Amino acid sequence: MSNLDREAVPAVCGGRGFVVAEPVRELLSPRRVPLGESTEVRRLLPNLGRRMVGAWCFVDHYGPDDIADEPGMQVPPHPHTGLQTVSWLHEGEVLHRDSTGSLQTVRPRQLGLMTSGRAISHSEESPKPHARLLHGAQLWVALPDAHRHTAPRFEYHPELPVLDAPGLKATLILGEIDGAASPGTAYTPIVGADLALARGATVRLPLEADFEYAVLSMSGEVHVDGVPVLPGSMLYLGCGRRELPLRAESDAGLMLLGGEPFEEELIMFWNFIGRTQEEIEQARADWMTGTRFGEVKGYDGDPLPAPVLPSVPLKPRGRVR
C-alpha cells in the first residue's frame, strides 16, 4: 500500500537512543488519511509520539467499511525501496499486482508479504466483484542495511501457524511465538501476530524481554495490561516484558507487533526508505523517469506521481519526535 499523503515530509528514524528500556503504557492516537477514491485509513506509525516499533515503521488500519456500492480500495501503481509490506485482512479481499509479475488475491488471515529490496512497484485494489466489507491493516517493515538492496519478491502464505488457548486464537504473521514460526521471510528479529479474543477471556501472552512491543486494536473492547485500547488505536509497551495480560470485554481482534529495537537510523519519504537524502532523491528521480522500478501490468489507471521533496535539508530526529 502507498503513502498517498501529498505533503510527505522526510524523517530520520531508527537507532536505539529513544527505545524505552522498561515496560510502559503509551497510547498512540491515529491520524486520518484518505487512501484512493473511497477509503480512509487511520495511521498509527509513524506517529507524533513514536516512529518505530522494532523494525515495524508504518501501520495503517482501515475499516470496517461498507463498500458494496463503492469501488473499495483503489491504489494505483507506486514504488517502494528498502522495506517489506505486510497486507493483513479481517474482512474483504485485496488484489495485488507488482513489477515482478505477481498477481494474487489476498483474503482474511492470509499473508501477502512483499519485499521491495532495491526497487519494486505494485498496485492494490478491491477485485470486481468484491465482498461487502473491507477491514484490515497495512504495515511496513524496514530492511536492515545488509538486505535492503536484495532482489524484489512477493510471498503469499495462505496457511499460517495458529496457537490456541482458552479464549484466544493467535495467528502468527511474522517471526516466532511459543515455538511456532511463520513461513514469511524476516530479515530482523521480529514478531507479528493476529490475536482473536473471546468475550470474557483473560490471558497472558508470552513475550521476549529484549523486544519492544505495541498492540493495535482492530475491533471489540479489550484491556491491554489494564489499559482500554479502542479499535483504531495502538498501545506502545516498551521493552522488558516477559508476558502481556489481556482481558476482553467483548469478542475482540488485536495485532501484536514487536521486535528487537532497530539499530540503524533511516530516512522515510513517501514510499521510499533510505539512509541519505541523496538516496531518496535518486529513488524519486528513477520513479518519475520510469527506470529501476519496473512495470505493473494489468492495472486500469496511471501510476502515482511522487510528491515534491522539500527544499530544506533533513534534520535527524531519532525514533520519536
In short:
This is Pirin family protein. The protein has 321 residues and is mainly beta.
The largest β sheet comes out as: 8 strands, antiparallel
Secondary structure class reads mainly beta
Radius of gyration (CA) equals 18 Å
- Total strand segments: 26
Determine and state the CATH class. Mainly Beta
Overall tally of domains? 1
Give the CATH topology: Jelly Rolls
Number of helices in the DSSP assignment: 1
Tell me, rounded to a whole number, the average pLDDT.
92
CATH superfamily: Jelly Rolls
Approximate helicity band: under 10%
Amino- and carboxy-terminal Cα gap: 24 Å
CATH architecture: Sandwich
Q: What fraction of residues sit in β-strands?
A: over 45%
Order of helices and strands: EEEEEEEEEEEEEEEEEEEEEEEEEEH
What is the overall shape?
globular
- The low-confidence runs, each spanning 5 or more residues with pLDDT under 50, are none
Family: Belongs to the pirin family.
Protein name: Pirin family protein
Domain Pirin N-terminal: 41-141
Domain Pirin C-terminal: 193-291
Account of the protein in words:
Residues 41-141 form the Pirin N-terminal domain. InterPro entries: Pirin, Pirin_C_dom, Pirin_N_dom, RmlC-like_jellyroll, RmlC_Cupin_sf. Belongs to the pirin family. Residues 193-291 form the Pirin C-terminal domain. With 321 residues, the chain is mainly β. The chain is 4% helix and 48% strand. It has one helix spanning 277-288; strands at 11-14, 23-28, 31-35, 39-45, 56-66, 74-80, 83-91, 94-98, 103-106, 111-115, 120-125, 133-142, 153-157, 162-165, 168-177, 180-181, 190-197, 202-206, 212-219, 222-224, 227-229, 234-238, 243-248, 252-259, 265-269, 272-274. Strands 2, 14, 15, 16, 17, 19, 22 and 24 form an 8-stranded antiparallel β-sheet that branches. Strands 3-4-5-12-7-10-13 form a 7-stranded antiparallel β-sheet, with no helix packed on it. Strands 6-11-8-9 form a 4-stranded antiparallel β-sheet, with no helix packed on it. The longest helix is centred in the C-terminal third of the chain and has 12 residues, at 277-288.
